[in-house]
Amino acid sequence: MRTVLIQIESLSPYSQSRMHDAPKKDKERPDEYEARTWREKCTTDEAGQIVIPAMAFKMALPVAARKMGMQIPGRGKSTFTKYFEADVICTGNAPLGIHKDKVASITINANSDGVRGSGKRVKRTFPIVPAWKTTAEFMIFDDTVTREVFEAVFEAAGMGVGIGRFRPENGGLNGRFKATSYKWKE
Fold first, then answer.
1. Where are the domains of the chain?
2. CATH (one of 3.30.70, 2.20.200, 3.30.420, 3.40.462) for 2-102+130-185
3. Nearest one of 100, 98, 107 to 126, comparing CA atoms
4. Stretch 37-51: mean pLDDT
5. pTM passes above 0.90
């Protein structure tokens, strides 16, 4: 087992869209509810500081590995995808150092049912962080995933998959990132 501590820097804004269940006030219109509760779409720690969920990074890696289609040397047509799915984890949420009460917002016209091209549109407001930096730690449980392979897949995940709302994987522009340093521990 190996661990790697990665310094990460944004290449594009990061926007979150966490589901929440903030109660609706009596006679509150949907647009009033949206204006009052949009900050609840942030994923935060106990102190209200915004964090990138560990699963956002973890789930981006197998998608990138699948897209790359890198074959494991000496194992025929077998690829690294299943190793990134089962044997690589991000050990914890990555802090952004921004309190949810201080985050900026963006209001967009979104499909009311969340399905692209389905018809009726409504205004939705989401938190957005224009530029960000963070640190994330990953554990790799199988030696099949070498340093070189992990770093290549991480870079591909940052450019072509991304994290958060409106990320490249879903045809968006937000959530791109790059590693500025890797610190490996065996």
1. 2-102+130-185
2. 3.30.70
3. 107
4. 98
5. yes
